[in-house]
Amino acid sequence: MQPANAVLLHACCGPCSIMPVLRLRELGFAPTLYFHNPNIHPLSEYLRRRQGVLDVARRLDAPVLLADSPADGGDPLAAHPRPWLEAMAALGEGMTDMARRCPLCYELRLKPTARFARGLGFARFSTSLLYSRYQNHQAILDAGARHAGPDLAFLGEDFRPWLLDGVRLSKEWGIYRQQYCGCLLGEYDRYKRELDEARAPGTS
Ligand code: SF4
């Protein structure tokens, strides 16, 4: 069993985890960070964000659990992109549409987070995804609600008002700050503009 105020907080990366931990503490909760993100590609990027979450946990003296670590009760295959790739393959052409692919991506992360929370006796879970202004807030709330139940509440706290505080602290602390959402499709969307500019008439 966990303390009555314990929360398993799914952590997508270091910078996005800072203010959710601080805000949940302000509200009287005791968050434990949980890194589970098979949507982060390539593995070198996954490792940077994983380390970022560990760095934030150390800074905030917060407990942290890694889904890919057997020592934490996790599974080494949790880092593998296969479940994410399978979900996208099922979408076909729809994978290029964030409105279709991102809700599946939230599901892939929040469903196992809820399962892990139940296994460890947490009564609540939440996610640092609710800190980002780039994510589909309603789809995250929907995914959380789908996996909540009488034994496990989903805290749909809106962490976005603290965005700038999190940016400032992550820079001060030297936490790794990523340049794209996570998956290779997000990375493509992020840099496609540069490709378009590079092949514009008169640039070569
Ligand atoms: S853009 Fe981000 S939220 Fe959407 S599928 Fe890719 S990693 Fe997941």
Bound molecule kinds, no repeats? iron/sulfur cluster
Percent of residues in helices: 40-55%
Number of domains in the coordinates? 1
Q: Note the beta-strand portion.
A: 5-15%
- Parts with pLDDT < 50 across at least 5 consecutive residues: none
Outline: globular
pLDDT averaged residue by residue: 97
Order of helices and strands: EHEHEHHEHEHH
Distance between the termini: 63 Å
**Major sheet: size, sense and barrel closure?**
5 strands, parallel
Structural class: alpha/beta
What is the CATH C level class, in words?
Answer: Alpha Beta
Strands side by side in the biggest sheet? 3-2-1-4-5
Kindly identify the CATH topology. Rossmann fold
Short structural summary:
The protein contains seven helices and five strands, in the order βαβαβααβαβαα.
Describe this entry's structure for a reader:
The protein is of the alpha/beta class. It has one domain: 3-Layer(aba) Sandwich (Rossmann fold), CATH 3.40.50.620. It has 7 helices and 5 strands, in the order βαβαβααβαβαα. A 5-stranded parallel sheet has the order 3-2-1-4-5, sandwiched between helices. Helix 5 links the parallel strand 4 and strand 5. Helix 1 runs parallel beside helix 2 and helix 3 packs antiparallel against helix 4. The longest helix is centred in the middle third of the chain and has 23 residues. The N and C termini lie far apart (63 Å). It binds iron/sulfur cluster (SF4). Iron/sulfur cluster binds next to helix 4 and helix 7.
